[in-house]
Amino acid sequence: MSKPHSTFQRNTFQFRNIVGERTFGFVDLADLMAKATPARSGDRLAGVAADSAEERAIAQMTLADVPLSLFLEQALVPYEADEITRLILDDHDKAAFAVISHLTVGGFRDWLLSDLATSEVLTQIRPGVTPEMAAAVSKIMRNQDLILVAKKCHVKTAFRNTIGLPGHLSTRLQPNHPTDDLTGIAASMLDGLLYANGDAVIGINPATDNVQQATRLIRMMDEVIQHYDIPTQSCVLTHVTNTIECIDQGAPVDLVFQSIGGTQATNDSFGFNLANLAEAQDAALSLNRGTVGNNVMYFETGQGSALSANAHHGLDQQTCEARAYAVARKFNPLLVNTVVGFIGPEYLYDGKEITRAGLEDHFCGKLLGLPMGCDVCYTNHAEADQNDMDNLLTLLGVAGCTFVMGIPGSDDIMLNYQTTSFHDALYARRALGLKPAPEFDLWLAKMEIFKNNEQFTLNHQLPDAFHKSLNRMIGGLS
Amino acid sequence: MNQDDYPNDHSFPTHPHAEAVTEQHEPVTENAWSKLNAFTDARVGLGRSGISVPTKHLLAFQLAHAQAIDAVHTQLDSAGLAAQLTAQDWAKDWTKHCAPLLLHSRATDRATYLQRPDYGRRLDEESADTLDEHRASTSQQYDLAIVVVDGLSSLAIEQNTLPFLQALAGYLNGWSLAPICFVEQGRVAIGDDVCERLNAKCVLVLVGERPGLSSPDSLGLYLTWGGKVGLTDAYRNCISNVRPAGLVYQEAARKAFYLLNEARTLKLSGVKLKDRSDDDLIIDTSKESKNFLIS
């Protein structure tokens, strides 16, 4: 951060709102959006947040009167300077937008909550909604609004199973290990599978991030998936250019991963551009490894990444985040994951801010047509704990979240943070009646992992198929 | 399998290799694979109460989280640590000319520190004055400034600083050392502020790393050649996870000295300075055996 709390020149205000004796002014659309954003530490750090609770509320009232069409006329990041702005505006579908083109941001909220906005209609308008429109309306929605509208947005994707059906919740099995030790990784994989996790993806964050290591881990997961005939997919979360090399060298790549941000400068700092993603998508599609679908991309996002890269163009962090979803939807991903509490308290300070951000990201992603999941998580220097995670997990489950993480006992021993556990996913299933992907659900029954798929009851015996390998490893099972 | 195959739990067939059939009698179901925790620190095979984490593991987790929180929020007793250091025989060369200097960042308290990383990277006015006065008081040229910073774990600093420095001391004959500095509410980059004000050739920062649930006491080492305010991470070399259960002190000191020596020879640090201290170790992954799940 070079200039926290930098002051803007306020010579001219694009937006004014007179309340009683006072005139509140907002320099431009970006300033108005930032000041209308529910409070969070990252916007304070960037110096773009409202100065007072009153100013924030006035900004929200002012934003509610802005016509949606203004977002098509005034780019928040210059068109010439940013390929994501160009992507957003060049790909905008005017016909799809026609249904909502007469609305203001406030009117859009009413419309989204109304019975006019059915699941079918919400699907139709998707290409007409820009990330900025989604971000704007989310800023004047309460948590329950974000949940209710997101629940109406159905986004189905597929690779070796079908993700995102209503009434379903999938999990990424995340068997990370601090030295990429194959036995340690296999132990976490076994634990996860026997706790009925892993239908979204089995995805490893490698401790050593290079092509050789990624290939080693990709092969390892592929062997397990084939050996047990698991209807799921694998991914090593390495840089997109590494994955392209892995594919070139013949590695059995299912999904291509990349962390993405909402400005070109953020993605520059991540070391990729849109052309790299297109190349990677083509490479993965050429392998033709999907059986029921060909969504081959896995993206991760998170509020604060643009500010962290000093690439936020004076925007608030949630608007930057929503713009990342334009990048994601260009490449028809199988999964998009907002890693909401990982970045730390300088961006999202406590459980309340993390919860709000998680619901915003899920809503915006779903409205824009993404298979949105959430890494419900926190670090040990944030003001948050397991109870905050329980709350957010439950809220996201109600909202129809596509997937969450699953890790042994909530403790990621490689990344040193806490995310949802295998047990947590089963809690959400039981409390809310959410089933795994149908193909995976059948596999769980076939393997005798679930004793009762309807009641999410686990077998109390070790399933036969795992017995031999486990007995060889630790012995003494008989 | 569906429920119809087995009308109730009591008719469930016993498997010849089955784990103890406890579900009908005991609220906690143990996992047959719990012994896998011998092969990983991951919390595998916890068992379950219904589908939930059993009480003993729930409480163990809470204790680990509590320790991590305390590591973040407990204030570093830098005066006490400085006194302990001064009392060590092996540290006499470092402390005989000048007692350790106690400094503070611009972050006034922990809440500010956590939300304003920029404040944690700069010394407050009083600390800057202290260093400027010291610099003006001597003509000594310093090869190395060692800066001990609380960072996100005061526990890491309290447990690991003295034993690590003792291990490092053996390597540093012939190095002209600046007074050791202790900084409260600091981040890694504050070492650059110190280095610049003392006009030292390079700086080694000892900082408490972000605590993990199983590692609240992890020390990080950051080396910068020619540290000055405004440098990015690209100019630093890092050695992570220094603690008895991680990278042990002798190994950490060996690696740190390797980097210090290379930096002094090449007059640079960061991405252009590669850690080849382990190049004699060759790992051949092509002969690696298959993981146990498919063997």
UniProtKB/TrEMBL annotation, chain A:
Any one GO MF annotation of this record: lyase activity
Subcellular location(s) of the protein: Bacterial microcompartment
Pathway connected to this protein: Amine and polyamine degradation; ethanolamine degradation
Cofactor(s) for this UniProt protein: adenosylcob(III)alamin
Ribosomal protein as UniProt keyword: no
Binding locations of adenosylcob(III)alamin: P206, Q258, S308, M414
Primary location class: other
Domain of life: Bacteria
Enzyme Commission identifier(s): 4.3.1.7
Annotated binding of substrate, by residue: R172, L173, Q174, N205, E300, D375
Job description of the protein: Catalyzes the deamination of various vicinal amino-alcohols to oxo compounds. Allows this organism to utilize ethanolamine as the sole source of nitrogen and carbon in the presence of vitamin B12.
Family: Belongs to the EutB family.
The protein, known as: Ethanolamine ammonia-lyase large subunit
High-level lineage: Bacteria, Pseudomonadati, Pseudomonadota, Gammaproteobacteria, Oceanospirillales
Gene: eutB
